[in-house]
Structures are given as C-alpha cells and as structure tokens.
Task: inverse folding
C-alpha cells in the first residue's frame, strides 16, 4: 500500500474491467497488445496468477487521507491500471522486464505510475531477487520514457525502429536499493485475502 495506490493480485474479478480497458486502440498501441476475447482474457489472468516467471498486480486508487479497509482491496471500481514483470531472459534469470499501465487517464501525470514502479521494483528486488531491470517502450510513449529515464535512472540501450520500440535498462546496485528503500519508506503490506 502506497500513498496514492494499492497493489493487489490480479484476480478473476478484475478481468471484466481489464478487458474493457484493453479494447482501447490507444492502450493496445502503447502496450503492444492484441485484443483478446473475454474467455482469452480469463485464461491470461490464470496464466499471470499461476506461472512462476510472471508477476502482476492490479493498481487500485487510494485516498491518501483515509485508512485502507479490507473492502477497499476488493473494490473493482478503484481499478486504475496494472503493473507486471516477466522473468524471461534465459541468459539472466534474475532480470525482470517491467511494464506499467495507468488505464484511467485522470490518474496520468500525477506521479501514480512512478509510485507504482517504486513499489513493484522494491518487491522484485527484495522478494524475488531481481538484479537487473529492462523495459521495452513504444518510441512514441514519451511519458513512460521520461519516467524510466528521469525518475528511475534507466539508460537507453537499444532502439528498434522496425518495432518502433526503445529498450532501457537499470542494474540493481546499492544506490538503487537505497533509493527504493527511501521511495517506499511510507509503504506497508497487509494480508490480502479474498472474501
């Protein structure tokens, strides 16, 4: 739980709203996603929930001035996006490919994605043992490129004009660990259980 957001596991109850988001041509373009049927989306949710090489959280909005109740964790009306990583580099099993999507546009440009990434990176480093991060972003997604370069210290390592994509990387070092601890010092965890 952060200042502006709550990260919860991606459950089947989240799929209908997520499916609606992914009908947006803009979100499809920015995330490099293809539209799925609702049944395919449910199957994808199960894959995200059960596969050991993937981790995803749904991002819920949080009022910074109120205490979080268990019912808040179940409220799909609070859904504003998702964040995930893949452990798919066979040469480096400790490299995580990060992705973040803030689907509800009224939350864009307010530091929400940055906070979400702080929380996810802290989790990846401390709980999973990630030692390298990589992101692949559409070269037209200037907001995401800005966050990763200017807020998180990632460096561009590759451009793929044929895919219209830029690759940025950041290794985990003592400085990054200290920054993550500072950035997430306000955050806390509570037990998550479906009612």
Result:
């Amino acid at each position: 739980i952060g200042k502006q957001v709550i990260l919860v596991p991606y459950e089947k109850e989240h799929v209908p709203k997520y499916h609606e988001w992914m009908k947006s041509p803009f979100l499809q373009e920015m995330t490099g996603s293809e539209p799925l049927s609702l049944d395919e989306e449910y199957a994808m949710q199960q894959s995200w929930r059960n596969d050991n090489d993937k981790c995803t959280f749904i991002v819920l909005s949080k009022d910074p001035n109120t205490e979080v109740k268990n019912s808040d964790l179940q409220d799909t009306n609070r859904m504003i996006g998702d964040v995930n990583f893949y452990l798919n580099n066979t040469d480096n099993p400790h490299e995580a490919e990060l992705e973040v999507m803030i689907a509800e546009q009224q939350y864009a440009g307010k530091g929400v994605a940055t906070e979400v990434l702080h929380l996810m990176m802290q989790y990846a480093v401390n709980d999973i043992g990630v030692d390298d991060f990589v992101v692949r972003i559409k070269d037209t997604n200037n907001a995401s490129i800005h966050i990763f370069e200017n807020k998180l210290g990632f460096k561009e390592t590759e451009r793929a004009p044929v895919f219209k994509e830029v690759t940025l990387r950041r290794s985990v070092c003592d400085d990054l660990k200290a920054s993550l601890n500072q950035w997430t010092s306000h955050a806390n965890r509570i037990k998550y259980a479906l009612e």
